[in-house]
Design brief:
eight-stranded antiparallel beta barrel, Lipocalin, alpha+beta, about 150 residues, about 15% helix
Length: about 150
């Protein structure tokens, strides 16, 4: 019986390590990502992806604006019934409700705040530091590469 009590702290430590490592494997998309515009091939923003209540979300935490650009852009083209309508792009939640499914994340939505359009969204890792982010509407889709920011 005394041997069991000696092993108990080791078992507890092992359990915590196992849970932490399995969580990290379950959510490799969590973190900060530099977005690259698929039309201009230039960096647009930094998006932080986070988990909330078992789903994944992303919000813009930094914008790469050029001189002459509106320095405080808003989602003025968003639908009137969208809670992001006329809100500042910086700090905006652009990814909502992604769920892990068979090695990728799907069934969520992504917003293009410049165009005010929301699309179905799928995300998957392409290596450790590159995300493929796909927005689609009906049978048309666009995919961007996002790169992990440390």
């Amino acid at each position: 019986m005394k041997n069991i009590f000696k092993l108990l702290p080791l078992l507890v430590l092992f359990s915590f390590c196992f849970i932490a490592s399995s969580y990290a494997q379950d959510a490799p998309i969590v973190g900060k990502w530099k977005t690259i515009d698929d039309e201009t091939n230039k960096p647009k923003s930094i998006v932080e992806i986070f988990e909330k209540e078992g789903k994944f979300y992303g919000k813009i935490i930094e914008l790469f604006l050029k001189e002459g650009d509106n320095q405080n852009p808003t989602c003025d083209k968003c639908d009137d019934d969208d809670d992001r309508k006329d809100q500042l792009t910086l700090g905006m939640e652009i990814i909502r409700g992604l769920q892990k499914y068979e090695g990728k994340y799907a069934w969520g939505k992504i917003l293009d705040p410049k165009k005010g359009k929301e699309y179905k969204c799928s995300i998957w890792l392409d290596g450790n530091n590159k995300l493929k982010v796909q927005g689609s509407f009906l049978f048309i889709s666009r995919t961007q590469d996002w790169y992990r920011v440390e």
